[in-house]
Amino acid sequence: MKKILMIKYGELTTKKENINFFISTLKENIKSTLSGMGANITYDKGRMFVTSEEEKYEEIEEKLLHIFGIHEITIGYELKSCNLEEIKEALITLVQSRDFKTFKVETKRSDKSYPYTSLEVSKILGGVVLKNKENIRVDVHHPEVTIYIEIRTSHGYIYFDRIKGLGGYPVGSLGKGLLMLSGGIDSPVAGYLALKRGVRIEALYFDSPPHTSEAAKNKVIELAKKLSTYSGYVKLHVIYFTEIQEAILKNCPHEYLITIMRRMMYRIAEQIANRNNAKVIVNGESIGQVASQTLTSMAAINAVVRIPVIRPVACLDKIDIIELAKKIETYETSILPFEDCCTIFVPDHPVINPIVSKCEEYETAFDFESLVKKAVKEEVVIKIEKGIKEEHQFIL
Ligand code: ATP
Ligand code: MG
After folding, report:
1. The whole model's pTM is what?
2. Collapsing DSSP states into helix, strand and coil, what is residue 118?
3. pLDDT digit string (tens) for 22-34?
4. Domains (ranges, CATH) in the chain?
5. Share of the chain above pLDDT 90, in %
6. Contact at 8 Å (CB) between 88 and 131?
7. Whose CA is nearest to atom 20 of ligand 1?
8. What is the pLDDT of residue 279?
């Protein structure tokens, strides 16, 4: 018998027309996540199986628990055949090395030509366990251990432990989005939620040196690294935003600074998204959280782009966003006290209900189009893969 991890993908199987694409994306994601670990991945009737060297299983399991589209991971043993005698023998060895007082056996047959029904197999094997281990009994309602038997065409499987996976869809199976990633709490969570829906994420950060420091940028890189543990890699676009911010500060009324700044961010985001084949912008806006996130503000900001904007945390309470940030381990990084690009932009009374025509009027005070063009042209791209970062500057 050989140790094996069995992967189940739940929600995928409801997407009938796309199923093959979903499965091949999941397979690719698993393959690239486990590359270099000597893992062998096979596929059989709605399941995937991973085998490797004994000492690698723990690390493989940990990695699989970061892959969207996996519903459940089961750790077990594959037998050479599905012959009942072989299953009995293996089971006797396995139960002897485990400590439990109550158990039940559950059997599934995908091979319907098998000479016994599932119930018969469970009964026979339950009897075998009782006979070969002392002081134990069957408890069908609350067993300490459930022994799962699967009978497939060529092999039998014995499983003990089932671990819940992340669920969702395989990253990339639903196209790509551009995540506006700040150093705050909300946007990494928004990115995680989009990834969970199968959207591959490229990230975009607006950097405003010297108003924002290298440490603030590194914080964003750190957050992108965290997100890359769920997606294999993240391409981070860094936009030099200082000139635009300073032009806004110099030319526009203070209560409109943030609104206009965010309209510039959206314009740039749309261009970067189009250039990289991202179909949507994703960001961490949450209704009512700050002045720029009232519905009127969001509409005035959104008015400058045609691309759809997805706001995964729009309707979540901050406390729930924080809980998610802790779960995905971005929280501790997000709360590091580095300034963000709004620091030079904190008007005493930011407008809560900005008027689009006013924004347009203020924006004519300076040639923002050429500044936006320049900023897009001078983007720096950092590819973050398995914790390694590579930097490229693109001057188009
Ligand atoms: P966060 O906690 O994600 O920083 P926030 O509550 O601070 O969000 P804002 O500063 O208004 O809210 O930003 C709203 C959203 O705009 C952010 O969630 C993020 O998606 C985007 N954003 C803000 N600043 C930047 C930046 N410097 N670079 C990239 N995206 C940004
Ligand atoms: Mg912020």
Report:
1. 0.90
2. helix
3. 889 999 999 999 9
4. 2-164 (3.30.2130.30), 176-393 (3.40.50.620)
5. 79
6. no
7. 283
8. 98
User: Does the C-beta of 186 come closer than 6 Å to ligand 1?
Assistant: yes
Which phi and psi angles does 96 have, rounded to 5°?
-70, -30
Any long-range contacts for 172-175 (C-beta under 8 Å, 24+ apart)? 172/25, 172/28, 172/29, 172/198, 172/200, 173/18, 173/21, 173/22, 173/25, 173/26, 173/69, 173/198, 174/198, 174/199, 175/199, 175/200, 175/278, 175/279
The protein residue whose alpha carbon is closest to atom 17 in ligand 1 is 284
Q: Which two tokens stand for residue 231?
A: 């997606």
By CB neighbour count within 10 A (0-12 exposed, 13-18 middle, 19+ buried), where does 296 fall? Answer: middle
Q: Which of 179, 181, 187, 267 to mutate to test the pocket of ligand 1 (most atoms within 8 A of CB)?
A: 187
Confidence of residue 103 (pLDDT cuts 50, 70, 90): very high
Confidence of residue 396 (pLDDT cuts 50, 70, 90): very low
Alpha-carbon gap, residue 136 to 96, rounded angstroms? 12
